[in-house]
Batch of 2 targets.
Target 1
Amino acid sequence: MAPEISNQSLIFLVIFVIVPLTLSYYYQLGVSKNVLWSTLRGTVQLFAIGYILTFLFDLPASYGIPFMLTVMIIIATLHARQRGKELPYVGFVIFAGLTIIELGVLSLWLVFDMIEFRPSEVVPMSGMVIGNSMTAMGLSLERMKSEFKENHGRLLASLSLGAEPKQASHLIVQKTLHASLIPNVDRLKTIGLVQLPGMMTGLILGGVSPVMAIKYQLVISLSIFSSVSLSAMFITLAMYRYFFNTNKQLLQSDEEIRSSRSK
Amino acid sequence: MFRFENVYQEPLEDLNFTINQKDKVILFGPSGAGKSTLLFLLNRLSDPERGQIYYEGEPIQNHPIIDLRKKVGLVLQAPNLFPGTVLDNIKYGPSLVGNWKNSEGKKLLEYVQLPSSYLERDVDQLSGGEKQRVSLARTLANSPEVLLLDEPTSALDYRTAEEIEEVLKELIEEHQLTMLMVTHNLSQARRLGDRGLFLKDGRLQEDGKIPDMLDHPKTSQLAEFIEQ
């Protein structure tokens, strides 16, 4: 077990802040106020979340876990939908996608006895899955929008040749998925080589043997890999259709996309 | 073949005219006059806000849209080829409905005067003129009755443009196609068209025979446009 960090030791961490503060003052960077404020804010935020987590982890699993997962999915939905606000039903689709993916992953963990149905295990692990899926959905939405803009001429050519919107968007969907999945694959390829994953580092520092820590890390890394891939596919395949109207015509502007389904 | 009744779609205003089968119509006019918009309406890439377009006597929206787009083929200003080979591109339309025969590839390239060895060539290796020929072959693969051409030679050098013009001339004669072509080039209009529609500010200013309307414009707007 790693030694407990005392409050006095934490105060000495101020040294780590003094260095950039001194440099900022010396080179007149004008960020001293920002450094101080960020340090203070970060510390308060972390302590606050620590106390909240302690409270939440003490709740009975039967309603504590569903409550916390719902809150996390709602916050993730609100955040990811910012990337595709002009698309109809985007919030609903993201919420549904995150819920399905989270429930799927959680069921696997529980069925195969990888974790216990306890808030202290389910919440942090689910947080990583939901957070990464949220980012994947947001990035896919953004990428899809830019691919639609970039390939405007090709899409028109394709439709004019008699393609259904699904057939015309095939290239866009392919490119979006490719762009979303490549960093995910790369991350998995270099895991443990470029940097030790955070969860594994935490477990080792907490006194867990490296092999056991690696097993946990594998569970979470593979879960993240699969949920990120599924999130990108889910959101892309669910949303490309909203770039067309019911007459199989390509919508030209955000305004047209926004109003297309309300007509 | 096409009849426009009070068609309004920004920037077009109250268009009323008829296009007959096998007409070779040149659409010309200053930029922003609505020429490309008009072609988009005929291929139903967009629909008018007001008014009605008839195709073969029926309101255009009564024709199944996919069939209509195949019958009324559109060649855009930029070739907009899909990534892959020439063959991937020209078989695109027929393949969508599983209607492609490999023997067609060679014939289509012959139409646009490209050697059959080009079938397996990557589209990234083609010159601007070759790309536009492939784009033309891709539209012809659907066996259209009408060919809509949106300034197909405007991005090409003079010599390549003339070559494409020759290809078009032969194709239209051989396949008895109805043609609507947007061009800024009045010499090209004389060479390819037998009827002209002059659009300005979204309105049809003059409709007449080529070359008569270019030699003896009836409106001051057309006279000014020709002088420019």
Target 2
Amino acid sequence: MTTPRLDVVEFRTVEYVSGPLVFLEGVHGVHYDETVEIVAPDGGLRRGQVLEVNRGRAVIEVFAGTRGLDVAATRVRLGGDAARLGVGLGMLGRMFDGSGNAADGGPPTMPEAFWEVNGLAMNPAARDHPAEFIQTGVSAIDGLNTLVRGQKLPIFSGFGLPAAALAAQIAARAHVGGAGEEGFVVVFAALGITHREASFFRRFIEDSGALGRTVMFLNLADDPTIERLLTPRVALTAAEFLAFEKGLHVLVILTDMTNYCEALREVSTAREETPGRRGYPGYMYTDLASIYERAGRIRDHVGSVTQLVILSMPDDDITHPIPDLTGYITEGQIVLSRELHRKGVEPPIDVLPSLSRLMNAGIGAGKTRPEHREVADQLYSFYAEGRDLRRLVAIIGEAALSASDRRLLAFADEFETRFIHQGVTSRSLEETLDLAWHLLAPFAAADLKRIHPETIAVHRQETPSPQPGLVSGAPDAAGAA
Amino acid sequence: MSATSGSTVRVAGPVVVATGLDEARLYSLVRVGKRRLIGEVIRLDGEDAVIQVYEETSGLQTGSVVEDTGVPLQVELGPGLLGQVFDGIQRPLPPLAIKDGRPFGEPFIRRGVEIPALPRDRRWDFAPAVAVGDIVEPGALLGTVPETAILEHRILVPPRMRGTVTQVQAGEATIDQPVVWIDDQPVPMMRRWPVRERRPIARRLDPDQPLITGQRVIDTLFPVARGGTTTIPGGFGTGKTVQEQSLARWAAADVIVYIGCGERGNELTDVLKEFPELSDPRTGGPLMERTILIANTSNMPVAAREASIYTGMTIAEYYRDQGYDVLVLADSTSRWAEALREVSGRLEEMPGEEGFPAYLPSRLAEFYERAGAVRCLGGDREGSVTVVGAVSPPGADFSEPVTQYSMRLAGVFWALDTDLARRRHFPAIHWTRSFTLYDLGAWFGQHVAIDWERQRRWALELLQQEEQLQSVVQLMGADVLAPTERIVFLIGRMLREDFLQQSAFDVVDACCSLDKQYEMMRIIRLAHETTQRAVQEGAEPDLLMSLPVFADVARMRNWPPEEVAARARELETRLIEEVEAV
């Protein structure tokens, strides 16, 4: 991160140091939210940000942590400017630290401009309606929870679930209906993830040949905690520049937002603020919104910012404040299930609690296929019924079920092992929907209540339905278990 | 009032403390810093004035100048409101995006921009309703302006003014040019009104008429009165926003004020894209021409989110005073409550439940109580403001404070259920957890069908029974049910799937007339009676339910409005025949 400075004022009036915070006394003319430099007693430079100014006192959060700082010798330099990032096309293919400094040993990038990392709120009246389908190659997403350009969609994961693998697959493969491949780039921000996860991601992107169109910002598990508050903002600033100045379609991957929220809580606690639920600050919704809302499209502009956010639900609890507040801001969620993961279903996406709010705008005639919505609704409905029946079977046994209930039960199994499960193979949307029709084949037309009779007639004519017994032998089962 | 100025001593997020504002009053509007950010005094504490700032305070210094404007936060009222998109403090958003002649050249909201809420250069055709020499009372009609193709804007005597009309200027005028003179005092078309003050009325009326919404589960089971209040709590993904947007589209109101309070930016694009294309079910004009949007999305300044509710409500009252039925949709009151909590936290106030300030319930009450059906000031006009407040309970847990307080205040409770939403049962309004306190049976009996209320009670009772049977079936399977119970179980399912579910995205199904609702329910009730009788005579329940006629019951939703009566008669005959044949 580069900060152009005109008139730097230096203070030696540190009053006390507590947690990630430094309290500075007897200062004047401090700007709220400005970025500052802290000179440690050993001469090292650290960056910080002003959280509050109250009469002669300023509260400063130190991104690199306060270890080694003291009251006597620590100096603080104020420059009066908000945190900025030097942005440019030269960032593509490069790797940066969590504050935006080149971290791959390469030469410094040539910035074309310096943008404030906190960004500005997009005027809601200038937003364009996100409506372009992004093909991820994952059936559970493309078929049932379709992602569109300009959407923000989180993956609710649990510790030990393969969210990173899913995100990496999507980043490596996502393209928009064949066109626009050229203008598609990935901005990846690691927030407190391990070296192992970060290198997995990097390798995946490298192997897919997409490294040249990727920008990486890494704040890893052993990097300063408070810097994590800056990293998503730095990454999104780069993304906004590439999207709205350069007309590129940017997919931003933020992982793992749980670590971000914990850093937020740490600062809040150090400031002795009134805690909200589970100790997270009451303004966490607003704070998260200032990150997530930086996705979208702008009218009369070419590019777009799409966000794929990974967060780990502590104890797999979807009502935990982090997934809960996120779900209220994002346009849907993809929920990973430990049960499916144990069964060997990859990716283990539980489609029932998953949702894409912008799906309807991105699918249908001229975009995906005309019957997309109806087929998706039918799959949902049968799968939900089949899941309910499983619970019943556990109590009363399968023998007590009617033939139609047994068909639903079989459908739920097939749906998981053949539709959701696909391992590392990628499926086109055509393949996904054809597979869906195969799974629906054993049902009589009258049972398909969510699909218009005309649609069924057209489809069953075109693709003669295989015998129910043959379904599991259908050709596109290659990727299945 | 003379304007005074002071200087900032503290900046913490949206809260700024200033000294030297000796004459500032509570809720005075102030301008902060070089960029003249807009703020409001929310507490006076000795020397200090505590200010909530409606714009980003990044970069603000201590020692910055604060200027007291001497007036409270006000909105501009007059022709030109309809079809407009404002932020929380009534700045028009589309003009903010214009730069160098490009309509979206400045897509990000810059600070300190001053654009009047209502366009000053637009000319309106004023048709006077008074003549020189007329004596006018507060609220009396002065004249009309065709604001949009579907709504006549009525210019009234301001609430605190009375006297004799001394001059009248008919024809084209801008909103700040005088059109009528009362006792030689010029009266332009535009008014200003403080947002935190309710507008005066002659008297309140009893809420005894429904606000028709075209949504079956609402109109039939849990109707809201014209001038009533509703709260819709629901976890994320339960369809609050889709529900509010359906109401904005299909509700039988003259004016819709949609307050997007701390919600998603992309959702507004839905409304902005669709509303100009959709037509008003009552007048046929573009839906946008009866709609006013207040958009303060979640990433816009938090204090303006707090104000947005009052801005929207004041505009709604202004149209109510003209004799219109206004529907206020607030999405979501939880975000508004959180804005209160955030500001309260910065003020270091003693927190109440879950960190919310102790005055949350009284603020919520003030908001909901601004709803009502009224006899307007100065005429025989009647108008109403109906309020629908969405609530976003953390973790979909309805025991949290905002849901609980709202439940206490609102007359109707539409409980959105996460489980229903996951099954894609929409609208996910839960039939046993929701309620309405408005007694509107008499109106429906008079205007739709005499046995409307009886039919409604039958449905509620059947759904209740079905829920009980449901728990038995989940434990022991459907086989344990007696044949008559099996019928209740199956008819309950029919009610849920074929009546309560309604697609907001289907052209025909999205809005359902009262006649159609009545007929659909009547057919299902008839199905219940006939099959129940058949079962008692020994027929097999599952065999009955597999009759082809029931496939057509499932398609009643697709009946075109003009064919409802004929189709219902035909289906009724078939139903009776087929069941009797068994």
